[in-house]
Amino acid sequence: MAKATESFTSRFGLVATTIGMAIGAGNIWRFPRLAGQYGGSFLIPWLLFLFLWSIPLLIVEFSIGKKTKYGTIGAFKQALGERFAWMGWFVGVCTTAILFYYSVVTGWSLKYFAMAVSGQLATIDHSAYWTEYTASIYQPLFYHFVAIAIGALIIYRGIVHGIERFSKIIVPLLFILLVVAAVKALTLNGAEKGLAYFFNFDLQELGHYKIWLEGLSQSAWSTGAGWGLLLTYAIYARADEKIVGNSFLAGLGNNLASIIAGLAIIPTVFALSASTEAAMEGLASGNQGLAFIVIPQLFNHMPAGALFASVFFLALFFAALSSLISMIELAVRLLLDFGLSRKKAVLLVSIFTLLIGAPSAVSLDFFNNQDWVWGLGLLLSGFFFTFAVIKIGAETFIREYLKPEYNPNWLPLLFKFLFYVLLPLEFVSMLVWWLWQSVQWYPDSWWNPLEVYSFGTTLLQWALILLAGLLFNRKFVKLLK
Known about the structure:
By secondary structure, the chain is an all-alpha fold. It has one domain: Up-down Bundle (Amino acid/polyamine transporter I). It is built from 22 helices and no strands. It has helices spanning 11-22, 25-38, 43-68, 72-80, 85-118, 126-134, 138-156, 158-186, 191-198, 209-223, 229-234, 243-272, 276-283, 287-299, 305-337, 342-356, 358-362, 364-392, 394-402, 410-441, 455-471, 473-480. The termini are close together.
């Protein structure tokens, strides 16, 4: 087995890396869309579930990774026993499946940054161009390849000279770019309407169950909780690193980036739209529509629009890239645990990502299908980490994995409430709601695995991966030995 031979050289390096892991494209395109849909009321459940879902799972990931020094498969085998390696397999495959299409998102961001810098965004019909670009095959494939190449080069250089050095520079720069965009947005005429809407707390909205499920889902997907990413980075944490403190910083840093992104986007949309109705329509135009159609259109109507379009897409690219490298490292770490060298592991992961990600680069339907299936799969991954605490036992987990310096009497009670009661309920609520949504979308063909967002396509793809994990569980364990 290839043991971890590197460690982060400083706490700042580890914190920057874990915050970069958490911050991704979802902070910049999905969070503002949901905040725009529900107004400031959305912030309440979103923030609440940071502490009731995301941070508890981040703490569990960090604890297991730091103690076992294995990637997801080996970590579940070490923590729960050989019979449970398949759970780590599912977590690893789920996040790697997201890597296969997330490189496409990173490529889109890079392409639009290049267009913004060159001034092209000011001269095109954005809706028509987005349709043309995503159907052009060669351009999305090319930028998909470039994104993989950049990420692979960083991972190839290792933890200290690659990931840590990159994160120390890029993550602070990402926050600076978001702040610059937010300051510019807030100086626009009419921005106060968007600002007021963003922080308008209508308590009646909290009576709708959807806002709670959306807030929980956004926190679960945005922070990276349950993905296995923080577990992977914790392998390289120094012995004196504090588990709870670093987990809190990762979650809080993610939410801070989301708030700043909201301040940059929502006031801009309100200030530059012809009416409040037009602003609301723009914010509801979907993740890709908001980022690649609505926002570029609006930048054309503001002073120095090309400059701020460049700032926006550079921030989006950095956010996507910082998450992309964490996914590549997760996949690479799995191969390191099976005895491959970093050089061979990076090469294999890069080739597989290039090939398996190609369909998502050339087909939005395929992209959306994979985003749907494996985005929901992350809920199951989160449940497996919850199950790990249940199987080990809350008190044993705190004593042997968390090892807190201060262990008050209420800490085991809190863990039991969170992991024995609340997190399982949250998992069931989210999973049932999203799958029921898919049945509503396809009332006559919900079972059809060829439908983009169907119940059938989700269960089929999950079943194949789970079955493979169960069948090859012993083989995984043998390879790890």
